[in-house]
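Ticket 4471: requesting a sanity check on a complex prediction with iron/sulfur cluster. Repro inputs:
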Amino acid sequence: MDVYLETMGCQMNRLDSELVVARLRAAGHEIVASSADADAVLYNTCSVRMHAEQKVFSRLGADAQRKAAGRKLIVGVLGCMAQRLGRQLRKRYPCVDIVCGPGQLARLPQMLAFAADGQPAIALDVDRNDRAAAEDENIDWIDLVRDADRTTSSAQAFVRVMRGCDRFCTYCIVPFVRGAEVSRPGDHIEQEVRRLVEAGKSEITLLGQTVNRYRHEGDGRSTRFSDLLARLSDIDGLRRLRFVTSHPTDFTDDILQAMAELPNVCEYLHCPAQSGSDAVLKRMNRGYSRGDYDDLIDRARAIVPGVSIAGDFIVGFPGETDADQQASADLLRRCGYKNAFIFKYSPRPGTPAAKRFDDDIDEQTKKRRHAELLGVQDEIGLAHHRSYVGRQVEVLVEGPSKRADKQPTPPPAGQTQLQGRTRGDHIVVFDGPETLASQYVHVDVTNATALAMMGRLKAES
Ligand code: SAH
Ligand code: SF4
Ligand code: F3S
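Returned C-alpha cells:
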C-alpha cells in the first residue's frame, strides 16, 4: 500500500511517526510524500491545544468528501487525539477506519490489513489507573525494533526513556492521553542507543514528558536519571547526549553535576516555567513556586558553566492578572533564556482546569499578553545570541539552511548556506559545502539575531 503519514505533535510524536514508518516499511508498505494518490492517509495527532485538533478535523472533513465522491481510501487517526476521542471519532467522522492510541502503534500494520478488508480497527491504550496493565504492556517493543539506519537525520536520533506523565498540571491533556508515567529499563535504552551509534548517529536526544523524573527499579537496582546519563555517556562514538523536557521539580543537583562532568552531555536545559506568578503556578498545580524555579536556574548556572536554557510559558490562564503577566515577563528577563515557547491558554475538555475554572481571559487580552512576552523574549534572545559574537562554537551541521534571510551576502560558488546546532542547541547559519552535513565543524560567530547566530566556517574537527 502507498501510505501517507502526517505528524502534528511534539518530539515524542515525531519519534512515534518514525517508528511507525519503520514498521510499515518492514510490512511491505511504501511511504509517500503526498496524500493525493495514497491508498491510506494516517494522521499522528496532538491534543495539547484546540488549534492542533482543528487541523485534524479539517483534514478529516476533506477526506470524508473524497470518500463520498467514490475515492477508495483508508483514513487513520493515531496518537493523542485518537486516544482522547476514541470511538467518538468514528461517530463524528464515519470516514475514519483506524483509531490507534499512542501506546498501540506497534499494531498498526495489522490494523491496516483489517481496514483494507473493510473492517474498522480500533486500538486504545489501557486505562491510566490500571497501572499493573500499563506495566504489563510491552511498552517499548516498537522502540526496540526500530530501524537504526533511518532516523530523522543521519547524525541525530531521538530515544524515548519514559512514557506518560503523572504530574497532572491542571491545563494539560497529556496525562490523560499518554497514560501513566513508566520508565523504560536502562538496559533497553542502552541497547537502543548503542545500535543507533553503531549506525552512525552521534547526537542522541532522550525524550520524556518529565525526563528528569526517570527512575527504573529492576534486578535489585535503582537507576536514577543521572545514573542513566552516566551509563550512556560511556558509549564510544556518542558525541552529544541531550534530553527534553525537564520538569522544575525533582531537578536534583546530581543531574546538574552529570551535565557538568560528563563530557558528551550537552549544556542545554529545556525546563518550562509556564508562569512567573506563584498564584498562577498554584492553580496550574505545577508543584513549585517562583522562588523554587529561580533557585533551579541559579543552581544550573552555578553548576553547569555556559548552560543554555529554554522555557515554555502559558499566557491567559484562568484568573491571570496583569500583575501575574508582569511576573512572567520578569521571570523571562531573569532567566536569560536562549528561546522560549509562549502559548495562549487553550482549555482542554476533561482537564482539571477546564472543569474548575472559567476560561475568563478574553482572546484579545491573550493575544496582547502573548505578543508582549514574545517581544520581551526577542530582546533577551538577541542579547543571548549576541553574547557569542567573537567566539568560536562547535556546530553539528544539519544541512542547507531554511533561513535564507540570515546571511547578507549569497554563498560563494560551490557552497550553500548551511545550518547546524551548537551543544547548547543554538542555531548557527554559515556558508560551506553541502558535504559537511552530519559533520562537526567550528564556526566563528560574527553576528546574531533573536533566534540564531551567523558565522564563518573555521575548520573541520
Ligand atoms: N511535558 C512537557 C510539555 C508538554 S506540552 C512539560 O511538562 O514541560 C508542551 C507545552 O505546551 C507545555 O509546556 C505548555 O507550555 C503547553 N501547553 C500544555 N497544555 C496547554 C494548554 N491547555 N494550553 C496552552 N498551552 C498548553
Ligand atoms: Fe503536561 Fe505537566 Fe505532564 Fe508536562 S508535566 S506533560 S505540562 S501534565
Ligand atoms: Fe505531544 Fe501533543 Fe501528545 S504535545 S504528547 S502530541 S498531546
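Notes from triage: Residues 9-10, 12-13, 46-48, 79-80, 173-174, 177-178 surround FE3-S4 cluster (ligand 3) (CB under 6 Å). Leaving this open until the requester confirms.
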